[in-house]
């Protein structure tokens, strides 16, 4: 086992009411990383978090912590703490006593507790709130208290189960930055669960994309976004135009009735593939000289760009541009080699109905 893996899930299987949630699921998590489990509701990400925390015993498989099997060890004996979406604060206690609670259970001296609590409240930006009742605090402040209470015990891993879900958009964005700052300040492992791809891309060192209890792709946010492994990842991480195509040879692909130069290689000659083009990578131009042309069906202002739907031979392209074109206008579309991403079609061969 590699020493830099703090947690390893080894062939974990979990079923509820005879419905399989995780099947032979394996995942290695490196120490001091911010790892996000990303996927739609019911994909198994929270179940994975509960297995790591010891709240759920798997039907089969092992949970390793620094190479040691901890599968049967209860939560309170693991060097892991959890922050839930519902923060579960003690509303009858003030901020100081909430954060100090775990330390008092361990019967630490009050002088040491005061030092630890003060340092942790300073870390989460709540210095001066010691005597405030948690019931009188905003959602964002309550979340900071929950994080401080979890971190004051110095866990090796902090598990976070959609902790930003109850916050408004502005506060969520602020807390994304704060969580990353806290993780980097403490140099501990964060394992974060969300269905929000923006959260995953903003905070994570590593993103684990899941669907139906199966890992679809693991990688950095940039790799996941720019090089999706399949159509599910491409569609779930941001918005995408996904088309069938043929990879004729290295660096040459056909789709949408045209042949394009791309940067991909290593496919079989004339292999049927899927093509991903991100909406922001399409350049609007003169339809007479552009690679593709189509008719604008709709234009919506999104603040920093316009979002257009362009009909090209029956395929509706989603295009994001700082340029605005009126519905009914014939426009050109250009796509550079670096903006064409080729994916295997999950081993499926045969003819496809290519867009013309």
Characterization of this structure:
Helix content is 24%, strand content 35%. 35% of the residues are buried. The chain has two domains: 5-231, P-loop containing nucleotide triphosphate hydrolases (Rossmann fold); 241-344, Nucleic acid-binding proteins (OB fold (Dihydrolipoamide Acetyltransferase, E2P), Beta Barrel). By secondary structure, it is α+β, with helices and mostly antiparallel strands. A six-stranded mixed sheet has the order 6-7-8-3-9-10, with helices on both faces. A five-stranded antiparallel sheet has the order 13-12-11-14-20. A five-stranded antiparallel sheet has the order 15-19-16-17-18, with no helix packed on it. The termini are far apart. Residues 347-356 have low confidence and may be disordered. It is globular, with a radius of gyration of 24 Å. Helix 2 (95-105) packs across helix 3.
Number of strands: 20
Outline: globular
Could you state the CATH homologous superfamily of the largest domain? Answer: P-loop containing nucleotide triphosphate hydrolases
The averaged pLDDT comes out at: 91
Q: What's the CATH architecture name of the largest domain?
A: 3-Layer(aba) Sandwich
The radius of gyration over CA amounts to 24 Å
Strand order in the sheet with the most strands:
6-7-8-3-9-10
Approximately how much helix is present in the residues?
10-25%
Identify the CATH class of the largest domain. Answer: Alpha Beta
SSE run: EEEHEEEHHHEHEHEEHHEEEEEEEEEE
Beta-strand content: 25-35%
Instruction: Return residue spans where pLDDT drops below 50 for at least 5 consecutive residues.
Output: 347-356
Span between termini: 51 Å
What's the number of structural domains?
Answer: 2
Biggest β-sheet description: 6 strands, mixed
């Amino acid at each position: 086992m590699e020493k830099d893996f703090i947690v390893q899930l080894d062939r974990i299987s979990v079923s509820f009411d005879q419905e399989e949630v995780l099947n032979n699921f394996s995942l290695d998590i490196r120490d001091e990383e911010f790892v996000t489990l990303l996927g739609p509701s019911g994909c198994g990400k929270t179940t994975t978090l509960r297995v790591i925390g010891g709240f759920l015993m798997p039907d089969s498989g092992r949970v390793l912590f620094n190479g040691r099997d901890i599968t049967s060890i209860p939560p309170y004996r693991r060097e892991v703490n959890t922050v839930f979406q519902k923060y579960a604060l003690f509303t009858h206690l003030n901020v100081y006593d909430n954060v100090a609670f775990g330390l008092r259970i361990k019967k630490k001296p009050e002088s040491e507790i005061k030092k630890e609590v003060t340092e942790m409240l300073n870390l989460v930006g709540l210095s001066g709130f010691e005597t405030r009742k948690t019931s009188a605090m905003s959602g964002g402040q309550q979340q900071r208290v929950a994080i401080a209470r979890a971190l004051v015990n110095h866990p090796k891993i902090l598990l976070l189960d959609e902790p930003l879900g109850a916050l408004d958009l502005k506060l969520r964005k602020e807390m994304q930055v704060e969580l990353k700052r806290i993780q980097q300040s403490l140099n501990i492992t964060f394992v974060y669960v969300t269905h929000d791809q923006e959260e995953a891309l903003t905070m994570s060192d590593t993103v684990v994309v899941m669907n139906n209890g199966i890992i679809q792709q693991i990688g950095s946010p940039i790799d996941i976004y720019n090089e999706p492994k399949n159509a599910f990842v491409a569609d779930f991480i941001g918005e995408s135009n996904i088309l069938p195509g043929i990879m004729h040879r290295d660096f040459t692909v056909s789709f949408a009735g045209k042949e394009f130069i791309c940067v991909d290689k290593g496919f079989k000659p004339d292999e049927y593939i899927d093509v991903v083009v991100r909406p922001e990578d399409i350049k609007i131009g003169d339809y007479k000289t552009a690679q593709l042309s189509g008719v604008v069906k709709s234009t919506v202002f999104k603040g920093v760009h316009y979002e257009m739907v362009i009909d090209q031979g029956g395929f509706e392209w989603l295009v994001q541009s700082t340029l605005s074109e009126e519905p009914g206008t014939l426009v050109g579309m250009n796509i550079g080699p670096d903006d064409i991403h080729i994916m295997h079609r999950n081993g499926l061969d045969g003819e496809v109905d290519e867009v013309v």
